[in-house]
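User: Can you predict the 3D structure for this chain?
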Amino acid sequence: MGAQAANGHSANGRTTHEQAADGHAAPHRMEVVGDAVAALEMPRLVRLEHNLYAACFTVMKLLPARYILDTAARRGELRPGMTVVETSSGTFGLGLAMVTALRGYPLILVSDPVLDAPLQARLESLGARVEIVTEPAAVGGHQRARLDRLDAIRKECEPAFVPSQYDNPLNPAAYAGVADLVRQRIGRVDTLVGCVGSGGSMCGTAYELRRHRPQTRAVAVDTHHSVLFGLPDGPRTLRGLGNSLMPANVAHDTFDDVHWLGAAEAFGATDRLHREHALFMGPTSGAAYLVARWEARRHPDRTVLALFADEGHRYQSTSGDPNWLREHGLHLPVLPSEPHPVTDPAQVRGHWDHMVWNRRPAPGAARLGPDAARPAPDCAPRPADERTRVR
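Assistant: Here is the predicted structure, written as structure tokens:
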């Protein structure tokens, strides 16, 4: 299929241009070439060192955005003309905007001041209406305030569809195809490393890999002032991972280890990833790379796979700019070579900390969503029609 798309030939040997001339091109061209979702939702697999691989996404959250919306449409939960409403300050919102632009659904996104101007402009260019919540809630900060505003908009737009990335089990289920691709192209994965925010990518991919290799380790990358693994909430410079409230999709018993990284360390690692491997990725990819590189070099007999969530273009004027880093006190002349080990989250001191989590349950923390008493679900198997597959 990829070769056909690249050389412009269909399965019957005729070019798509030849088919266009006699009026038969449109359906077949879509089958062969596909749209932006089909082209971008699956990662490129790159070998960085002898035992270290990366799954490099253009926009990782395009995958669950498409999967959630298309599954809802197939079930009749999302109907033509219905408004999609969601809270996002990053790439899940971008994924939704791309899919809704292609599928023809109105989209309203609720965010906060951390949303950068270039991304907001891109969302609006794709037809999304973006609402910025400026006042944080007393408990849960901007995240809680965003959820409250989302609920009000949902009621105003009824009927509306809320993808609910934080507690919708279709989010982790969407990554089954990523695990399939990895097993086909790389084979055995001993250690999976990735950042945790909503819980979808790491929990979903780890679950699927463990269906075939139960001993596969899962290593979470979080940041300081995130409640996900037992730290108190606070302001976070490093975005795209961590949270102020606990998503139901974060299944803590998935994880064998957890690392907390500061912004300066993540930004420095992102620059190293670009300089040493020519991979132009975002800061969460740098964070995952620093941890995965340490894991791979500490265990040279293990195959390590890191999840890189998005490319670096939207960060060029901020964390990708050395002058910006120096102005904000975030430039590191030398990256740390190893983390500070802790045995309890209370011992975390900043910069780069590591704790053996040992698949323990969630720490006590306020949960996202209205059902505060609901425990985090594991990444249980889904029916066959609810799991994405490699295209």
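The first strand starts at residue 44 and ends at 49. The radius of gyration is 21 Å.
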